[in-house]
Amino acid sequence: MVHPPSRPARPEPPEIAELRALRANHPELAPAVDLQVDLMELGRRLLVRIPTPPVPPSPALLMSRLERGMRMLELEDLPLDWAEVRLALRQTADILARHDSLDPPHHDAISTLVRDAGATERLIRTWYGETERGPVAPPAADRPAMFDDVASLAIRPFLSRTLELASRMVTLADWGRSWCPFCGAEPDFAVLLDDHHRALVCSRCLGRWPWEAVGCPWCPTRDRAQLPMFASRDRRYRVYACQVCRRYLKAVDARHTSRPPMPPVDAIATLPLDAAAVQQGFIGA
Question: Domain locations in the chain?
């Protein structure tokens, strides 16, 4: 009996390979690395099931939204199948709970919620609608605790399908806002390109956009004296802090890396910098 040749295994994405190398070199980061790897592998599985939007937004519509100070991507622009969204929410919550990043009562509440298709869609629409023109605070009180964090991770694969198209249709040079032009969320990382150019990285969709080289993304402070910066020993990573609002933003210096910036990897590699910033009284993104 002749057996068909076995299909070669898919190559591991560079980000996951880098995370495994980081785990080998820094065993103390293993719990965070393992969580990130599981989340990224879930994202890969979901992406296989998510189609490319059949009718993507037009460049004219996207630019019109940007010119009006709105984000480019609304839920209607995404290839959403609500059954798949509920599956993504449940599996994301399961992974977070398995890695002790979601307390059992919060996991139970979210698991119960996603069984109700109508309630899940209503809460996702409310949650995403809050950032039509940038982040708002505080979150709505009718959502389970940690729902926003789980939803941000679960919706990312759906956003990425449309973001791939949208990012090629527009120029962001004149955006000038510190919140994401794609989905409206806050940044939680940055990429330093050179002494005069920096890009912010979205906490929800991982989209990137240009931002001032000097300036706090969360308040009007532009005075260098109020914006301390400290770097890792190898100069690869930085922390930009603000003495006024007490928030900080981590960044990778693209000039000192042997690979392209990988925010999901770099966010884990810089956990020691988080500890240093918190010890100095700053609050993370």
Answer: 50-166, 187-279
